[in-house]
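Blinded run. Sample ID left blank on purpose so nobody reads anything into the name before looking at the predicted structure. Input follows.
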Amino acid sequence: MGRRGPKQEVDLIEEDGPSDPPDGDAPEDGGPSGTAGTDAAHVRRRRATTLGVGLLVVLVLVGVVGQAVVTARERDRLAAVAALPDVLAPLDGPPQILWTSDEDIPFQVTTSAGHVAGAVTHPDGRVVARAVDLATGRTVWEVDLLTAADSMELPAGAVPAVRGSAYCWPGTPDNRTSDVMLCTADNAVWLEQDGTMHWIVATVTRLVLLDARDGTVVADLTDEAAAAPVAESSTTLGDLVLLTGRTSDGAEVRAVRRDGTVAWRTTVPAPPPAEPEPGGSPEQLQLLTAGDHAALVTPDAVHLLDATGATVRRTPRAADAWVTGSTDGTVVLGAGGAYAPPGGPPQAPASSTFIRPDGEVTRPGEWVWLGVDDGTAPFTTLTWDVDGLHAWGREDAPLWTADVRLPHEAVALDGLVHLTDGTGLLTLDAGTGAEVWRVTDLRSDTPLMTDGRVLLVTAGPTLGEDGGTRLVALDRKDGSEVWRAPTPVDVDSLWPVGGFLLGQRWDHDVQTNRAVVTALG
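Blinded prediction complete.
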């Protein structure tokens, strides 16, 4: 309800004088001393009653208007949350099966038209880029990246474990909805021989920039990618495509316009890659888009480049450190680990370095990915280690630490932080870290999902229920169960894509591993 106005006391006061006489006691002559006094009393009571009724109407109207304001505010909040990636469309009850497909459905890019798109490899080595309508499962467009004729010829009797590789990246700096995508495909092969996997380097590689709405080729950069130094990684930066390859001096980054011409080149000092383990492949250079900058990851450092190719920051990197980008243009460099493997050597304490053009900061713990973040939390980052879950403020100061172990992907929504750990599902106040509620009988391995109103998790059957996975919706404010229903299809995994709930099941046979995808809504 909306907040009401201040209370007002109303006194119904009658002046001294005769009240209504009992029946049969009215004055005989009906003179002023009787009728006039009685009428005055009636008038006063009518006025008081009218005032009371009017005040009640005003209070009711204030409440209705207040409720309308709250409803409008909630409607605006839900609309803002719905625009975020990885948020489900409103769930008024258990979702139903919309469609099922045994074709590979790529989930690499979401387009403004509500389609998903990406690259798909086939057992015969053919690679296609494909877009699929999420509402129907219908293929909207498909183009060849590599044909079967591009497949690598193998020695007689050699059976490939994996033939070809391909992937597409959205052509936007925040990795959200994009109508341009950069796709790469090659015919590299993994062979299994004597129980060991062997990697055979690609002989054919293609790199194209596609219009994600209809599959038309915006720019074919294959020749430029094959030119020396051969590109090992690529990304987009505004209207440019960046390519990086190794030189005798380190790593070269070159920016290519959409007409195929080179806008600039820059060389960054870097050591050669370490020798791979037997049967492994050498470490590749890596390019990431970080807002209006790009990050080049070499064996010894992370180099942050601006749109002209100038290095604005260099951060040393340990050989075993991993690097990823986040949605706010920050590059995350992670090292160490919170726990040593059983029987293994002790690990260095985990740390996460957050790299931005204006500086960097290293914090204890492993970075916690926020699957959904509506911007209402006062922290900018969450990390965790053996001491618990740490929240860090906008001035890089610690805000709070909560006793949370092994947190999985978290959701920040409406001033609360929801996450799963080894004990179940719990919710913390985003400002203080205080526990708001906890549910210990739900141990879900799927991502924590939301439509902005409820939290959706998977769980096993409770006592008395038949076997199978359940979908459970919880009220985000208090953790109470809103509804529970069996998952309408047998799946190995569930995740939100473009507002829909997609499930995937792998069908294994001697020749192939086939993915069957089901959309729920």
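Unblinding after everyone has recorded impressions. Residues 1-35 have pLDDT under 50 and may be disordered.
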